[in-house]
Design a protein that fits this description.
Length: 109
C-alpha cells in the first residue's frame, strides 16, 4: 500500500510538472499549422531532396516565412537540406538555411 501511494504521488507531481512546463511553453512558442500544400515548391524540392519529411519541414518553414520576415531555417540535416540551401532560399520565403554546427561554441584554445 505504501508503495502504491508513493507511486501515485510521484505520478501526480510528474503530471503537474508536465502541465506547468507545457503551459510555459505555450506562452513563449507560437504553433503554426500549415494550411497550404505549396505543390509547385514541393515538386521542385522533390527534384533534389529525396526525403519527404525534409520537404515537409522546408514547406512548414516557408509557411512561417510568409507570415513573418527574415526566417532562417536551422537544421541538423547535412545530407539534404544544408547542401541545397541556395536552391531552398531561391524558391521559398526563407532568407537563409544554417546547420546546427554553425552555432557550436568556439574553442578558446
Amino acid at each position: 500500500m505504501i508503495l502504491i501511494k508513493l507511486l501515485r504521488d510521484v505520478q501526480r507531481r510528474y503530471d503537474k510538472e508536465y502541465i506547468d512546463r507545457f503551459n510555459k511553453l505555450k506562452e513563449i512558442v507560437t504553433i503554426h499549422n500549415r494550411e497550404k500544400p505549396y505543390l509547385e515548391i514541393r515538386k521542385l524540392l522533390e527534384e533534389f531532396i529525396e526525403d519527404w519529411d525534409d520537404i515537409q519541414i522546408i514547406l512548414d518553414a516557408h509557411y512561417v516565412g510568409n507570415l513573418s520576415k527574415n526566417i532562417i531555417l536551422i537544421t541538423g540535416d547535412y545530407n539534404h537540406i544544408v547542401p541545397n540551401k541556395k536552391l531552398i532560399c531561391t524558391h521559398t520565403s526563407l532568407v537563409d538555411v544554417k546547420g546546427l554546427g554553425d552555432y557550436r561554441a568556439k574553442s578558446i584554445i
